[in-house]
Amino acid sequence: MSILEKSQSIRNHELTSEENLETFIKGIEKDNSAIRAFVELKVDEAREKAKEIDDKIKNGQKVGKLAGMVVGIKSNINVEDFHITAASPTLKTYLGSYDATVTRRIKAEDGIIIGMTNMDEFAAGSSTETSCFGHTDNPAAPGRIPGGSSGGSAAAIAAGMCDLALGSDTGGSIRNPASHCGVMGFKPTYGAVSRQGLLDLAMSFDQIGPFATDASGIALMMEVIAGEDRRECTTIDWKVPEFTSSSTDPENALKGMKLGVVKEFFHVSDEAIVNIIEDRINQMQEAGAEVVELSFDHLKLCLPTYYLINYVEFFSATRKYDGRKYGERIEEVCGEEVLRRIQMGSYISQKEFSGKYYKKALQARSLIRREITRLLKDVDVLVGPTVPKLPHKLGTSLEPMEMYAYDILTVIANLAGIPAASTPAGDVKGVPVGMQFQAKPLDDEKILQLMAAQERLD
Fold this sequence. Notes:
41% helix
């Protein structure tokens, strides 16, 4: 049963919200202590909400789009009365006093928020090993990282602990764990979803987006969370598509679709991953898609550009964590990677270095954005691997640049502000591999259509 079919089943009272919730509670009780997908749960409140929804349905009252759907929220997105920790000792005791815009919209549509998911500390990582609550294991490949920084959300979906989950994506933090855990993850166009109530990592990159097991789940959540928010200056006033219609009618989505295949994306990826993605592209061609070979000469520029801007924006964002109003002073309690980024950001922000590094990075970003716009001009989407290598085993010691290398194919969408998603493409000896779609700004619906079409190829 797809997420959309399950949603309809709950509305028809063939399945109750309470039954749906209890199935997930059992799974959480059985597996969460080992996987650590969730770091905080509110089971009693979730049960009350499920009963309230069932009573509404019984009485013929109108219910929201997410009625009975069980949702996990990444721990850097505000949910009132939950601890919003960003998985850091800095905020371990901080209790959310308000709902982020996306949270309000989920609640308004009768979604059942069961808990907060694990993540890399302050979203600064690609493995979910830096959390102060301990690492998250990968349910799809036990003993390996689930990816990051939204690893808890991806793992919760992969382990069957909730219907839907939210993550944040700064340089791949939704798509990377979606790929590693064998689920779907979607990064919307920058500004398509409100960032109000999200704890910044790098404000010019950050986007909130959904995880699900299928395209209909991504579509359903996007219909709820997307749209202008007058309280958040980066949001776009746009007509949110009926994403669920796109996900339920994928029959002809591939016919005539132009797929841009960038050879450099394959050159930096492991051979086993390349073989899987090439097989998928061949299947898409057989289903009617047209493949256009492209070249992108600035791939090596993307990671340094992304991280230089990231460091500066993260340093700026963390100045409020000074221990005066709430929490601890960040530099005194944070982990190694967070401290590295603060120190690098502080250094680059100094007047004498700003022009040498930060301003040049902004110029490089403009160049990358222009080049990506050029590549997308005559194709519908760019198609390739999500992550260039398989997830490493938990506890493996990596140098910072080895960890950053996971992001080489995902930072591009954040630098360019375009929508991107990861969808399962296959596996290497049981370890999942994701395929990434990237499209023009506000062509989010086109990506959803392709994700749905991909499911039909399985």
